[in-house]
Amino acid sequence: MVNGDQIDSDGDGIGDACDICPIEDPANDVDQDGICGNEDNCPTVANGDQIDSDGDDIGDACDTCPLDPFNDIDGDGICGDVDNCPFIANPDQLDGDTDGVGDACDNSFDDLDGDGVPDALDNCPEDPNADQADSDCDTVGDVCDQCPGGDDRVDTYGDPNIPDCAEWIDYDSLPMDFRCGNNKVLVCHVPQGNPSNAHNICINKNAVENHLAHGDYLGNCHEVVCAPGAFSSLPSISTDLKQRVEELELLLFPNPATDKIFLRLKAPLENVSFRYEIFNQLGQSVYKSKIVDTLNETEEIDLAANRISGGGYILVVEVAGKKLYSKFIVLDEK
After folding, report:
1. Distance CA 31, CA 36 (A)
2. Which of 23, 48, 63 is the last residue in one of the domains?
3. Is 314 exposed, middle or buried (0-12, 13-18, 19+ CB in 10 A)?
4. Has residue 123 been placed in a domain?
């Protein structure tokens, strides 16, 4: 074959003019599958079909994780499509609560009190309260609220689980908001057996500990109140429909997801609205939907458009006062 220029692009000693694989393949299709090595997604393993199920440019025939585009990103020997902690190495795959999320990455999804609400979202993580009732809207549920009407979120002393309104150290350490005169302390007095008649009183500092021991708390009885619209604005439904809400089935797929995930609520209901919210593993809301009217239809959630990146998340769906929870994992696209 005439090739006066003697060009040999891949340096294999065979001129381009007669080289079956002249570009970047000096081995000349070493696996003999008819596809040159520079274009072959498995250059040393014959795979004429070039199937690449996970789109990672590595053919299934030589891909250690043919359904995992990240090819075991945590290096624990378990492919991401079947790994119960795809981002954290856990070759033992232990899953003590059998929830599909491995123990190594399940701490943010724990449910210590067993009330069905993940700890990251539970307003009383150590006390069962599936209804999550919070009458004063201070983010602490009624069953563990030490100061009903007071603000349990404030803890300037740094003592775990003891808000300022329930802790007495001494008068000199007392916040100014809790003082009502010289050596006098503002206390919300909650009458035994008649909590609805709680009212403010101003007492001597020496009597504070006794009042706290009987269920009173420091500060104003109405330090925090629920703002208008704090509760659900979903349309009300009949008692019969509320009973059928208990038959709801929440489907979330695919899981793990990448750029999109799909939500479907299956129930023997019609013309019932719902809404949903997505929280990260710190319990922070990252997405909140508008009211949705597509019960029994598939709702698409565009993760990429809403900047929901790789990590673990909790989906909370609210229907007629009932909340359903589902965990899911998002994989960053390669």
Report:
1. 9
2. 63
3. buried
4. no
State which amino acid sits at residue 218.
L
Residue 38 falls inside a structural domain: yes
Cβ burial of 224 (10 Å; 0-12, 13-18, 19+) is buried
At 230, the pLDDT band (50, 70, 90 cuts) reads: very low
Beta strands in 32-84 (DSSP E): none
Give me the CATH number covering residue 253. 2.60.40.3080
The partner residues of 188 in beta bridges, in order of sequence, read: 200, 217
Average pLDDT of the segment spanning 161-166: 91
- Return the structure tokens found at 182: 């010289």
pTM confidence score: 0.51
Contact 256, 333 (CB under 8 A): no
pLDDT digits (tens, 9 = 90+) for 48-64: 999 999 888 999 999 99
245 within domain boundaries: yes
Domain membership flag for residue 227? no
Q: What DSSP character marks residue 209?
A: H
Rounded-to-integer distance, Cα 286 and Cα 315, Å: 10
* Total tally of structural domains belonging to the chain: 3
Whether residue 322 sits in one domain with residue 243: yes
Residue with more model confidence, 8 or 47: 47
Per-residue pLDDT tens digits for 100-131: 778 887 765 677 888 878 777 788 989 998 88
Q: What six digits make up the tokens of 42?
A: 């498995």
pLDDT the model gives residue 233: 46
Q: What is the residue type of 279?
A: F
Q: Tell me which residue of 326, 330, 314, 329 sits closest to 259, measured CA to CA.
A: 330
What average pLDDT does the structure give for the chain? 83
User: Looking at the chain, how many residues does it have?
Assistant: 334
Yes or no: say if 95 and 85 are a contact pair by the CB < 8 Å rule. Answer: no
**262 lies in which domain range?**
239-330
